[in-house]
Amino acid sequence: MCYRYVSHNPKQMTSNQHLKEYIHQFEELSSHETEEFANAFEEVIVKKRQFIVQPGFTAQYRHFVSEGAFRCYVVGDNGSDHTISFAIEDWWITDYNSYIYQKPATMFVLALEDSVILRIPYEKEHELKKANHKFETIFRIMAERGLAFYQRRVTSNLTLSAEERYDNFMKRYAHIAQRLPQYALASFLGMTPEFLSKIRNNKVHKKS
After folding, report:
1. Is 74 helix (H, G, I), strand (E, B) or coil?
2. Exposed end of the chain (fewer CB within 10 Å): N or C?
3. Secondary structure of residue 68 in the 3-state scheme
4. What's the pLDDT score for residue 2?
5. Residue 106 and residue 121: Cα distance in Å, rounded?
6. pLDDT tens digits for 122-176?
7. Top CATH class, 10-159
8. Which long-range contacts (CB under 8 A, 24 or more apart) does 4-12 make?
9. Residue 24 DSSP SS3
10. What is the largest CA-CA distance in the chain?
11. How far from chain centre, in Å, is Cα 105?
């Protein structure tokens, strides 16, 4: 899961307009600079259950989610899968180790809904960074905030109980939970679907 910026309803604007609004939170850009940045991206329509990254293939793109939801996960040797991150509107997703080092991916990135993404090729991103320090600043800030998120997640997994991890997730991302399959959310929180169901049922009973 990556840093999220709450903007206007993305369905009321084009994907290109959505991205333009998003980047202005990080850096003041002229209209020409905004167009130059946005034009480096390609819009792609992704169907539910379609993969945009798969193990063994190098991740060539960084993806900005304009509409929809995605799940990034790995599959262990025993066949069990482990959710690494999610992405909804205004979030970015890819296999970052593969993308940054241009090595074969180890993760799957799967669409949970019919989605619209804007993707930028690895080479084009580097061209943008070299062309304008403002563009480099945008990518740097996103990377910093993404790193801070992953640090919070690791700390949470190490120090909080399963129920506390669930409560923490719901406080921050309740609007996401309803869009996620229970098995995927349970995997992300480090518990079985059955245990997540038990936690949810207990909370319902406490309210009644």
Report:
1. strand
2. C
3. coil
4. 40
5. 19
6. 999 999 999 999 999 999 999 999 999 999 999 999 999 999 999 999 999 998 9
7. mainly beta
8. 4/88, 4/89, 4/90, 4/91, 5/90, 6/90, 7/90, 10/66, 10/67, 10/89, 10/90, 11/67
9. coil
10. 59
11. 16
What's the half-sphere exposure (Cβ side, CA atoms, 13 Å) at 84?
17
Return the pLDDT at 12. Answer: 56
| pLDDT number for residue 4 | 37
The rounded distance, in Å, linking the Cα atoms of 154 and 196 is 19
Question: Which residue is listed with tokens 């509409």?
Answer: 67
> What are the tokens at 115?
């989605």
Whole-angstrom distance, CA of residue 95 vs CA of residue 63: 10
CA distances from 25 to 29, 32, 142, 175 (A): 10, 17, 11, 22
CA angle 44, 102, 115 (to 5 degrees): 20
Question: Do 87 and 70 form a contact (C-beta atoms < 8 A)?
Answer: yes
Query: Which neighbouring-strand residues pair with 72?
Result: 85, 109
Instruction: Give residue 204's pLDDT.
Output: 77
Give the torsion sign (CA, 186, 191, 195, 201).
negative
Q: Are 91 and 5 in contact (CB under 8 A)?
A: no
Tokens of 156: 């949470």
| Tokens representing residue 91 in the block | 């979030």
Q: If you search the block for the tokens 């940045």, which residue do you land on?
A: 37
d(CA 72, CA 124): 23
Residue type present at position 69 = A
Q: Which residues are registered as beta bridge partners of 87? A: 70
Positions of the chain with pLDDT under 70:
1-12, 207-208
Q: Are 110 and 49 in contact (CB under 8 A)?
A: yes
